[in-house]
């Protein structure tokens, strides 16, 4: 059965382009013009991926992205005419898995959709307990890698816990700063970079064969399992 994609886009011309590009890849697309209609469809149908426009007559696709992320793990690709870094960061912080600015290449859109579906299939093919080499004992705030305790500082532990909770997703420096430092006004993006560097070194020492933390230039970091 082909993967099912829900497209939320109020511009008919853009919607036709998106539907054509995705259906050429053998996927099934359901198109919705309004946010309220998309919400209704999600109540009665299951989709493998959502492609959401931001500016809609009755709201924003970012609102639906936040709702979907709170309810489960359906991947989300945001389409927006606003391509500034701040807009991309906001979309990713709200739970989007990818962000594509308009105007876009239909071929690139199709490639990103397929990549998200492949990643989701890989993550769900094996139970999570078998896919992560990390273990957090919780009570003592001690993280283990392949059964080996990691000598982490309090900040490094919080950074790793945040990255692990959203493994595979890009975390902005601001999000990591809030998770590990809270209201400490003296901390900056540079502080995050420095601690990620030391955390990387400790992970490499425990597992030299893997590079777990991936840098996404201009966006942030993600944990690759």
Question: What helical percentage do the residues reach?
Answer: 40-55%
CATH architecture of the largest domain: 3-Layer(aba) Sandwich
According to DSSP, the number of beta strands is 12
Q: Per CATH, what is the topology of the largest domain? A: Rossmann fold
The main pleated sheet reads as: 5 strands, parallel
Structural class: alpha/beta
Order of helices and strands: EHEHEEEHEHEHHEEEHHHEE
Radius of gyration computed on alpha carbons: 19 Å
Strand order of the largest sheet: 2-1-3-6-7
- What spatial form do the alpha-carbon principal axes imply? elongated
Bin the strand percentage: 15-25%
Summarize model confidence as the mean pLDDT: 84
The end-to-end distance, rounded to whole angstroms, is 28 Å
In CATH, the homologous superfamily of the largest domain goes by the name Response regulator
Distinct helical segment count? 9
Give start-end ranges of low-pLDDT stretches.
Answer: 125-130
- In terms of quaternary structure, the protein is single chain
Give the number of domains. Answer: 2
**Quick one: CATH class of the largest domain?**
Alpha Beta
